[in-house]
Each structure stands twice: as C-alpha cells, then as structure tokens.
Amino acid sequence: MNISTTTGSYSSNNWYTLDDKILVNFSTAYPDSLAIDSFMNKYSLSLLYEPLDSLPITTGCSYTYIFKYNLPSNQPNGFMYVPELLQDMFEDSSNVVCVVSPNVVNIRRTMATNAGVPFEPNPEVTYDVCGVNDAYAQHQWFLHNDFYDTNNGIPCSPPIAPGTVGADAHICECWNQGLTGNGIKVCTIATGDVDFVTPNNDYVNQPFDPSTMWDCTVQPCVPLVSNPATGAAMSMWSYIAALRNNNFGTAGIAEECILSHIKISDNIFLADASMIRALQKALEMDVDVIATDYVSPVSNGSIKEELYKHYQLGRPMHPGALGTVIIAASGHTETNPTGTTMSHFPACFNLDINNKEPEVIGVIASNVYDKLESGWQGGCQTPYVPNNTYYSYPANYGSQYDVASPAAGCYDATVQSGITPQDVTQVAVVAGVVALLLGDNPYLSSIQIRDQIRSGADKVGGYNYTGPLQHSTEFAAGRINCMNSYLGWALHSNSLTQTDDLVKIATYSNSWELLFKKQTAEDYDGLLLDMSGNLIKKMKIPKGVQNYGISNIEISTGIYFIKLQSSKSSVVLKISK
Q: What is the CB neighbour count within 10 angstroms for residue 106?
C-alpha cells in the first residue's frame, strides 16, 4: 500500500490503498514492543511484519513496519474509514510516525508461474524506488516520478520541481501484484537495428531467436544482422523488457516477455512498402503485441488491410482469434501543438468493422507535469511556456487517440545516455503495460485490452473529458494507469454496438431481457455486478440466441452492471431495478 498526501486541505482523495495493509515508519529508530502495542491498540491494527533489530539506521526513522487494519462491521468496504484512519495517523506524525517518501513492498513471485498463482511479500527486502537498483531507473520517471531527475544527475540552479507526484504509469503497483509479462511475444516494428548477439546483462533472460529478427527494408525481407549500432528499436527494448533490479542499465516494464524485431525503412519514400512487409511477417510469426514507431500524416490503404488482418487472424489461440494488440504513436511535430491537429496514421485508427478499419491503440505523449508534452524535457528547463523555443518537439494530440503515455524526456541507456524521442518511449511504455496485462490473462482480446487501457486511464491534466468515451483532445482517455487497468474493466466500450449484435435491454417485473438484433454469432460470458463490483451471478449466453432473460426476483432495488464479453468484444451495461 502507498500512503499519498497532496498539498492543500484534506479530502478522501488524498489517500489510497491497494489492499488492507499499512506501511509505517516510526520516528523512533527502534520502537519497543510497548510502543508498537500502543500504536496498534489506538488504531485497531494487527502486526504482520517488523524489521530486524540489527538493521542499521541511517535516516533517524525506523525501517518499515507492516500492519493490517481491521474494518469495523459498519464499514464493509472501508470507503470512509480508511481515509479517516490514515488522516489520523498523518496528524500523529509530529511525535509518532515518520513522514517519508511512499513505501513499496517488493513482492516475490516465482518466474514463469501461471496467472492466478498466489504471490507473497518478501519481508527481508524493502526498497524505496520500486524495488529496483538499475543505473538509469531514476530517469525512467514513468515508473515512479518521485525520482525523476530533470538534469541527468546535475543539480539545477535555481532548483526546479521534479514534476507532479503520481504522474507516472503506476508500473510499481503492477509489479507488486507479481505481473511480469511472462511469455508474451512483443514485436517492435521500427527503424534501426537491434543487438541480439553481444552479451548484455539487461537481456540475459531473453530467448532470442534469430528467426524472429527480420530486415524488411528490402524485398523480400531477409534475416536481420545483429548490430550494436542500434536505433529506435533498441531504445524501445530497453523500456519494454530490460532485466530489472540487476544494477545495470534500465528497468524493463515486462522483463519476462519475449522480444522480437522487424526493421523498417526510415526513408519516407520506402517506409510504406517496408511496413507492409513487416506486418505480414509479424502475422506469420504469431506475435501477441506490436509496438511501432511508424508514423505518417497520410493513411495507406494497403497498410490498413494488413493491420485489419491482425485484428481478424492475430493470436489464434481462441475460436475466432483474439487479435494482435497494435500500439502506435501519435508522433511529434516541430511546431507548437496549438498550430497543428494533424491526425497521425495508423495511431488514429479505431475499430470500424464496416469499413475494415483495424483497432490501433494510439498513444499521446505526456510529461512530468501531467500535461500534453510540448517539447523535450531536457536540462534545467522550466515547465512548458507557449512558443518557448527550447521546446521544439511537441506531441500531436486529438480525441481520436486512446491514451496518454508518461514518456517525454526519458533517458536512453542502450548505447550512450541521451534523451530518447518521445514517440519511441510513449509506445514502449504502453507496450510494456499491455504485456503485463496479457501475461496475467493471455485470453484477453485486442479489444478488451484496448478497453481496459482506456477505462483505467487517469483523467488528469485539467482537461475536458467529454462524449460517450470520455475522451479529451489533449489526453484522449487520460494518462495510462497500469494498476487501474489490471483491477478494472471497460465501462465505456462501444465494441458490441459496433459488432451490431446488441440492441437493448428490456425491463420486466421480475427480469431483464437482453435483446439482440440477430442470433448471436458467438458465445458470450456474462457477469451481473452491483455498484461496488461485487459479483451477483454469472451467465453463459450461447451462440445462436436472439433473446436472453435474467431473473431479478431475488435482487434488491438499486443500480447494477451487466458485463458481457466474447472473444472479440467487451461491454458493460448499466441497469436498474
């Protein structure tokens, strides 16, 4: 659990918890048992873990104690109890609790385990930076922005703020749930080479297969020659899957995924043809995720056809296929964003079966201030000022994209340190999150992944989120939040409407009835949930039915959700009784 405070008056939104555990550092370096008992009695806590007495104290505060809070019977979900409890503890800080940066307990999970296998905390090791010690992790502010360094380790004069607390992708929290992206095949389709031969501490767990490395800048594609003179793809690799916590390089978001690469041309006149060949090769390789830096202001019909084939035929592990998850950047321009609203292909594509438009998760770049990125965040520059010449690479934007990625101004440690172009990083961050989610549940379709990414996004930046999908012009659905997407489901999906199956819900005295326009083309799994997300009942809607009734005789008056999903689509419907 993290305890988080914000400047200003207290409200319940200032505190959040991921489970029933509270992490506490005491102002006494080695509190005695009487002090611990008194603290537990005061706040109705149970002790789960206490640090060893032999640990050396360097900060004046104790090491981290872990307590379990005990909810009163009249507070079944802790909605108000937990914020009040944490506020009381915070007010105790002057003489009991040591106020420190947020604590994260490192969760240990056996490598290559299946989703659903219980994971347990490792009480012998605690960290204060996501549990990693990688040399460049401090520059990967999308992991945990409290440790973002605005000037590559050189103090700024005058000092400037390290960004907005919490303006990251919440990767640490997903790691603490044991998510690693195990076995998920992530293919980068990008300019430049990759080095998959030279020994590299960051990729020692990668089962590199030369048959998954291709150069499609020529016709036909030829096997790619490993090259240490790397380009954009190697930067993407370093963020997606570099080995974590090895005191070297970067910390990969999904370190147990399986990397492959297809090189495309950076020549504007040759890029389209090489992209077509690359998509065909990726489909042949049966990859789960494609992350591409291909960006064009012009839509290419042949590329669109290849993308649509990935939606139809990709990941054929389930009847009807699940669809390859494709992630593309909205790109960046060399003019201020107030001067352009150009849509970038293929990131601007959203699923339209009638026009055979594929689903592509389009990504916008955000910065450490939870704002639309208006230029590279380098050196000791101040936050964005319109028309400031120091910011020459603003991100493109538009509500037709899917999510904002906290990616601008990150450092690349693959060959030499330096700022990585944000269109490369923003795609890599989302690809890493997708690999984590698929590693936990590989049977999520490409549409379900898109919907979980959208619905889990944080509505930040002070922008106006409107319409049926609650999208903003600057941030689309919001800044990506791995933990929200892992815990939640799509509340704004319109994918069933697009498949033209569902018509409406009819309400009768003792039941609801789902009315389909025609006989269902595939099986649907259904869940009936209350407003708190508690499961009321499960349903199986078979292929070939046109109406399906749900009894509500034993259900009390209130608001409920019906969640339907098939191999290709997912939707949540709100109903009432």
A: 18
